[in-house]
Write a structure and sequence with these properties.
alpha+beta, 240 residues, single chain
Length: 240
Amino acid sequence: MFRQLLNIALSAAIPAGVAILMKVYPSQVVGYEDGHLLMANGERIVYDDGREKDFITMLDESDPEDMFLLRYDREAKVPADKMSDAGRSRCEQLFKAMYGHNAAEVQRNIVHVDWFGQKIPFTKVNGAADSLRAVAREMQQHPEYIKYMKQSSTFYWRPVRGAKRQSAHSYAIAIDVNTSLSNYWLWSNPGAKELDPLKYENRVPEEIVNIFERHGFIWGGRWYHYDTMHFEFRPEFLTE
């Protein structure tokens, strides 16, 4: 599928990343013109701002093109290579155009998903809630994994801790599973900074990751700055 999208992009003189976004978010990214994504709400978003960015700036001021600079590899072994955080970079203008510019706008598209004794809020935009329901159905076939699904959390409009960009949870597209069975880079490396070498830790079974990825969710455990509880609906990284 990626090769087909690349061929379509080349034939239409549009970047490969644009073709992918139009494919996986067809109700939101409706066109491309003069270097801009055309959004369903009428917004025009510069695809590539042409700026060279260091690691921190790319996280805080990502354009859509920046999101594709790192490849999310489902077959890669963890831990990830240093500074390999594919999917951690998000273009805020794009995500706000799709999911909502503020908490109230996001909440208008939230539905509640039955989730192992909880009803958790998730956006219906782009089929995200339907994809999470599909994860739940498949996970029900593995009772040994249910303990990892308990006490999960989703929507929370907030910035990333210590940064000026919004968390993916702000858009109701991310779920954190049981924190008592998870690991996070700052918990395991107290006082570490973004550019420091990190010790990796993980307790989430591989099959849980595989189930989420089959339904369009990337896993924070594949990031160098790992967040093993974190699963995020990002189908642009999982087209085949």
